[in-house]
Amino acid sequence: LVALTSPEEVKNQANAPNIEMIWAMKAYQHAEVYFNLISSVDPKFLKLTKVDDQIYAEFRKAFGDLKIDVLDPEELKSEPAKAKWRPFCMQFEGIVEDFNYGTLLRLDCTKGYMEENTIFVTRIQFFAVEIARNREGYNNTVYSHAPRG
What we know:
The chain has seven helices and two strands, in the order αααααββαα. By secondary structure, it is mainly alpha-helical. Strands 1-2 form a two-stranded antiparallel sheet.
């Protein structure tokens, strides 16, 4: 298996379809672990990175009016949105490990990871939205409805 450090390297590989599948599987595993975490631990107590406070402060400074309970894909993927997200994301280069790796994000925070509720974003976008959801109480629904046994 080839060790890859960025999505750009994936594009340069001859067996890109296989490697893309590996990336997709890793993204799904990350999503599954995260969902299990917010299902079993009260989200308001979670710390996702060493710099959660900085990520949250910068996110709300840049995206104070962004509705995060149910995300509009256009707010993440349209050209105007990309222009706004790019400087936000780049400020975490060298601060958040793998900040630009592809990660799955739930659009509606009350639902799980299923095809119609999932979008592919950078890891720093995932952290920004999920830290905000945890701190602002939006992920409490997942935790409070999770079976305990």
